[in-house]
Amino acid sequence: MSPDGDNEDGQLIAAAKAGDRGAFDKLVANHLPRLLGVALRILGEKSDAEDAVQNALASAWLALYRFDLDKPAGPWLATITINKCRDAMRRRRFSRLLRLDMEDGVDSIAHPEPDQEHQLAIRQELEILQQEIARLPLKLKEPFILAVFDGRSQDEVAQILGISRKAVETRIYRARNVLREKI
């Protein structure tokens, strides 16, 4: 985000801290597509991603008083969103442990007509890629998604995840190697 965008975010947060709900709504509107994209790639299901982002934004609203206006809002909101995604994944794992059937949730693909064979092959390759990304260990998946799909710099990813830039670089490199081996 540009410095002007950071300045606008700071102004919106200052107004929201003063009780202006409309300012918070505008801040959310500015960041919502990126937050949903990150959550969707981490969780893999749209409804889970939407729930995680909604929970993250509710937490952000409640934590506004702690926000440092000298820092950019995007990484702060992304950090909260990732934490909510982690919570959702923990709940999902716990729920699976309680169920005996251990459903995988794999969707079936309808049989294509002959003229759609190429499209089906592309969809299958993308599905395999998504499955392999979902199988990455969390410490590799999060920096990979933030850098590759969300377009964040390695410095931003390091700030969001609370790790060093070198750790981000290493984890992205390892994630790419694991995906290269699998696909």
UniProtKB/TrEMBL annotation:
Record keywords: DNA-binding, Sigma factor, Transcription, Transcription regulation
Annotated ranges, domain RNA polymerase sigma-70 region: 27-93
Coiled coil: none
Bilayer-spanning residue ranges: none
Pfam family, one: Sigma70_r4_2
CDD domains with a match to the protein in the record: Sigma70_r4
Keyword check for Transcription: yes
Domain named RNA polymerase sigma factor 70 region 4 type: residues: 127-176
Alphabetical list of PANTHER family matching this protein: RNA POLYMERASE ECF-TYPE SIGMA FACTO, RNA POLYMERASE SIGMA FACTOR HI_1459-RELATED
Stated family: Belongs to the sigma-70 factor family. ECF subfamily.
Protein name from the UniProt record: RNA polymerase subunit sigma-24
Native species: Novosphingobium indicum
Organism ancestry: Bacteria, Pseudomonadati, Pseudomonadota, Alphaproteobacteria, Sphingomonadales
